[in-house]
Every structure is written in structure tokens, then in C-alpha cells.
Amino acid sequence: MANEKNKPMAPYAKLPELEEYGAWFKDFADLYREDGILQVTWKTNDGPMHHSGMSHRAIGQLVRMLSLDFKNEIIIFTHIGDSWMTESDPNGWETYSELPTERFQHQYFDDTNLIKNMIFDLDVPTIGAIPGSGFHWDSAMLSDVTIASEDTWMEVPHAHGGLVPGDAMGLMAQHYFGTKRGNYYMMTTRQWTAQQMLDWGMVSEVVPKDKVMDRAWEIARMWKTMSYENRTIMSNLAKRPLKKLLVEDLKLHTVSEQYGSLLRIAAGDLGDQNSGQQDEKYISRTNDWRYTFDYMQQPQNCETWAKFRTEPIEWFKKVEAGEAENPYEVKPVKPYRPAPADK
């Protein structure tokens, strides 16, 4: 009876293990854990992640689940294959058009959760590993340390498609690059290179192509030699500047994009490439074009801005006719697995 009296009145709540919540998100992420280091590889099914309402929501939801599993001591965020996300599911935004509730949930909850959960939910060290060019680089740039391949190009593309750049991509450009430079790249959609990201403070290291994941695991295993408590406290210091930034400005940015989109819907000016705001279904062809050619790394003007609405379409016709090659053609690919650790 004495032992019974010393027992807690109730046990710890039972939460899902990695295998269970990994199955929940299997369409959107591959989860691999070794010695407390979790690698999160964004994907859609067996290929690159396709931007959609479903993937958009899944990122924030999965990050919240990861934060509840104390076995995840260090987390690496990456994308499957040799580039970041470039594609969009043309049928993956149907609930975005359902007003008011579904669109409100997507834009008010999902847009902010995708960003804030990376900083406010994750208490452990994080590494962003960018294997190549792509958009929606949130999780990589919000990590404590970010590594990019030397051939990476990125941008804040929203304005080119007629959107207000308010999903925190522009906010991070202002934060990392400085206000004037960040404003310029946000408002002109000009691309920047991996070396510029390193010089301007957006990434921590630039490494040769195909070495990004090796380096991410090398850093994670190095951190693993520190005590769990101290590396976790260290991560809180790393996240503190971004916590203050997001408290101040995140909701203002996201709501501004939502408001701009609703104005275009009300005006009947949202749709194809000739509309004031383009539909999400056109992302794949325009992004593949943007990351194949370096036109967008140059200063933009009226002529080049207008070409964005026509040249990707003409290029895709050539790709489909076999007259041009699309290096971002979607193919099945397997997630990276680290080499065994040295004993």
C-alpha cells in the first residue's frame, strides 16, 4: 500500500510516436531519425513537393507534432532531390476559392502557422539544408543555421504574379538583407544567388553541389557532442531575434497578402496569366522557367516584367514539343540518407 500511495495520480499523456505521425504526413514529408537527429525531407508522394493548400497546411501541422516528441533532439529541414520546391499542384487550391471560412482558415491560420511554428514550437537546434533553387524557402531560412548549395537561386516572386508579398518571404528579406535591399528584392522580384545570401546574412554556409546534406549531418552530429540541455538553451538564443520579429510583424504581413487577394477576387481580377493576380496553378511552369534561366537575376524593367507573363508559356510549348529541356521535370526520387557516423 505504501508504494501505491507514492504513485502519481495519472501517468503522462500518451502522444504519437515517430512511426505513427510519420504515417500521417507520409504524402508530404519523409522522416528519418538517427541518434536523436531527425531529418525532415519535404516532398509530395515520391517526388518534389508540389505547392498546394494541402502541403501548405501540412508543414505547420507536422512542425507542431515534431515539437511534442522529445526524441527529436536536433532537426534538419530539407527538400527531396537536388532543388528546393519548384512545383505546384494545379488542382491543390480548390478550398482557397471557398469563401469565407475555408479561405480564411488557409490564409489566416495556415499562412501564419507555417512560419511561427518553426520558431515558437521548436525548442531544439534546427538546420535548413537547401540542395538547390526553389521557392517557399520558409523552413530552411527560419532554421538556426542554414546551408545552401552553390548553384542556388531564390527570390520573393509574389509581386510578379500580382500578389502582395506578405507570407513572410518579404519580411525575412527585410530582416536578413536590411530594409532597403530587402524592399528592393521583395518589390522587384529580382533573384539573388547563394553567394549573395551568404554575403548578406541569409545563409550560414555555401557548399558544393551534392554536399549540402553531408554538411548538415556533420554539424548536427557535432552539436550532438554537447549536452542536451545546453544545446537546447543555445537554440533558444538563436531563435530569439526571429521571435521578436514575428511578434512585431508576421500577422501584419500575412493579413496584408490576404486583403490584397480578396480585393482581386472582389474585382473579378484573379485567374490566368493576364489577370491582375495569377492563379496558383501557373506556378510550376513559371518557376521552372525562372530557375532554368538567369534573366531574373538582372534588374527588372517594364519589358522584362511583361515577359514573365509570356516567355514561360512559350518555353513550355518547346519543352512539350521536345525542342527544349526542362531540368526541373518531375521525376521519382529517393530521400537522402546519411553515411554511418564515425565510431
TrEMBL record:
This is Enoyl-CoA hydratase/isomerase family protein. InterPro entries: ClpP/crotonase-like_dom_sf, Enoyl-CoA_hydra/iso. SUPFAM superfamilies: ClpP/crotonase.
